[in-house]
Design brief:
alpha+beta, 19% strand, six-stranded mixed β-sheet, seven-stranded antiparallel β-sheet, globular, single chain
Length: 591
């Protein structure tokens, strides 16, 4: 569980500095208000006649006490963490059980934000908001009541960029599969997001304490802050803030992928998936070539269809003969919104050439389940192709998905041939769409490509290498591979050539996998930025890079892709892998 907590904490830290949280930053910055609360009045004591000077001045017992520092930054961030954690996990379940509107929580958050803004403008409203906290003995805690309420409201409006960690939390909450690990992951993620926000709030308090204008014009600044909060509430209600978010690059994407989508994170977050459709786990996302990743799973559990005649469902089996692009998205996800123009352009360019685009709307939050909201946003975003409302995330789970957005390409025979997670790889994806269209109809006349070329992924990169007697390539060891029986192999004396592989120790070479025996080792030489291997079973793989030990991979469960190396630039590399007996190796891929 400790590893899971660490993944959640780091994922939350990265999320809290991403473009997606920009709308709440002004409110968090102003949450501290003035740096101090007003000092209590000087206490007086009855005076005897001899105590009273001739002037009649009343003596005081002591100088005024030092003012207490405001704890409003802590209150607002605590409220945000509490409401975000609780309602992300249980909000969908509670809303469904009570039969309430899916976007009720969002409306409550907007209303609280407006009330807090009014409280800053009108003291009587602030006293009303603090009234529920009046029974708490400490006066200072009572004064932070409105800040805590503000945090509760922000937690309902907080829509961070979704990566694998938040996706795992959302799916577990939506499907009611909540256990100690999911609770720990949620709390760790919430605390991770809270740390940068708290720093920002404390910075606001510091400015308020240090800048004289904040003290001398406190009343005017409170009114300005209140107006800003009300304006933000209306901006969020009418989706004004997303234009700014879409315009900014996703500068945390690389860090998020490094933390949330490495081999360890994939293992820890894979508890959401069973053995169904396990062939999908044997393919790596984003490889710039077509592969066979198993039959496309059905579009299951769809509650509503948009952009189809009479709301009729779309059956994948009825689309045999056409190429299908399935795009997993959700309308409040900024990353998804930034990718939509590319998908819409492909739909326009290739619909008449044999391409069908299907958007699978898998909601991250309860308010995204409302069909009216989705239909309205679909129209605003210009989405004209069929959209399936996957409110219970059944199709998301069928495809073993982990990201918003995610794109899956299905060929004319109904086989998944490619998928890519997150933004980017648009020219690469379009190139593979065009290749599949030509495979389906060699005579098709295609228009010019809509996307410019992506960055060169190295033209001489080592191709995918299958580790089964049915499709093996580049084998350079001795003796020749023996089918389906344990055999002792040896590495070649001159080393393994570029793009080649060799075995040593005992291996059983099956039709689509190699099974490790005693002292099993595999050597390869490749040219690429990174190398990956699909593995299954229970055990470890020790990685030696150019003769030096560089890591150990723990393998657990069904076939899953594991990262072996990861370099900044493509280079020639020699690897030796040492296996625990019983492990099964399927395919080597390179990026």
């Amino acid at each position: 569980m400790l590893t899971l907590v660490l993944i959640g904490l780091l994922g939350g830290l990265i999320t809290a500095v991403s473009p997606c949280i920009l709308p709440v930053l002004p409110v968090v910055f102003l949450a501290g208000g003035p740096g101090t609360t007003p000092p209590p009045p000087a206490t007086t004591r009855p005076t005897a006649p001899q105590d009273t000077p001739a002037s009649g001045t009343v003596l005081t017992d002591a100088p005024p006490a030092a003012p207490a520092r405001s704890r409003r930054p802590y209150a607002v961030v605590a409220g945000l963490v509490l409401s975000f954690s609780f309602f992300t996990l249980l909000g969908v379940t509670l809303i469904s059980a009570l039969g309430l509107p899916e976007d009720l929580l969002r409306y409550i958050g907007l209303a609280l934000l407006v009330l807090i803004g009014l409280g800053l403008i009108f003291p009587a409203v602030e006293r009303l908001l603090e009234k529920p906290f009046a029974r708490i003995p400490q006066r200072q805690v009572n004064k932070e009541g409105s800040a805590f309420v503000l945090g509760l409201g922000l937690g309902l409006l907080y829509v961070p960029c979704a990566g694998p960690v938040l996706a795992a939390i959302t799916v577990a909450g939506a499907r009611g599969e909540i256990d100690a690990d999911i609770v720990a992951l949620t709390l760790a993620f919430a605390v991770g997001t809270a740390i940068p926000l708290l720093v920002f709030a404390l910075a606001g308090r510091r400015v308020a304490e240090r800048v004289a204008a904040f003290r001398t014009r406190a009343r005017g600044l409170r009114i300005a802050a209140g107006l800003l909060m009300i304006a933000l509430a209306f901006a969020l209600a009418f989706d004004v803030t997303t234009a700014l978010q879409r315009a900014l690059p996703d500068y945390t994407a690389a860090a998020q992928k490094q933390v949330e989508d490495n081999d360890t994170a994939r293992q820890k977050l894979s508890g959401l998936y069973d053995d169904s459709n396990k062939d999908l786990a044997r393919c790596e996302d984003g490889v710039d070539e077509l592969r066979s990743c198993g039959t496309a799973p059905p579009l299951a559990g769809i509650s509503t269809w948009l952009n189809t005649p009479g709301g009729a469902p779309v059956d994948l089996t009825a689309l045999r003969g056409r190429v299908v692009l399935i795009d997993f998205w959700t309308y409040s996800c900024i990353n998804c919104q930034r990718s939509l123009p590319h998908i819409e352009a492909w739909d326009r360019a290739y619909r008449d050439k044999g391409l069908t685009v299907i958007g699978v709307h898998s909601p991250e939050f309860a308010f995204e389940k409302n069909p009216r909201n989705v239909a309205d946003q679909t129209r605003k975003l210009g989405v004209a192709y069929p959209v399936a409302l996957d409110n219970d995330l059944d199709t998301w789970t069928n495809y073993r998905n982990r990201f918003w957005p995610a794109k899956y390409l299905v060929d004319a025979q109904g086989t998944v041939r490619y998928f890519t997670f997150g933004e980017g790889r648009y020219a690469q994806t379009e190139s593979l769409i065009r290749e599949l269209l030509r495979q389906a109809d060699p005579t098709v006349a295609l228009p010019a490509a809509t996307d410019q070329a992506d960055d060169d992924l190295t033209a001489d990169r080592t191709p995918e290498t299958y580790l089964g007697t049915g499709r093996v390539s580049g084998y350079a060891g001795t003796p020749e591979l023996a089918k389906d029986r344990p055999t002792t192999y040896a590495f070649p004396k001159g080393g393994v050539p570029l793009n080649g592989i060799a075995l040593a120790g005992t291996w059983t070479a099956g039709y689509e996998e190699f099974t490790a025996g005693a002292d099993a080792r595999l050597a390869l030489t490749y040219r690429a930025k990174n190398a990956n291997l699909v593995l299954a079973g229970e055990g470890t793989v020790t990685v030696l890079t150019d003769g030096r030990p560089t890591g150990t991979i723990t393998v657990h469960g069904t076939p899953t892709l594991y990262r072996l190396t990861d370099d900044d630039t493509a280079r020639r590399t020699g690897l030796e892998l040492r296996f625990t007996p019983g492990l099964r190796a399927y395919v080597l891929t390179y990026g």
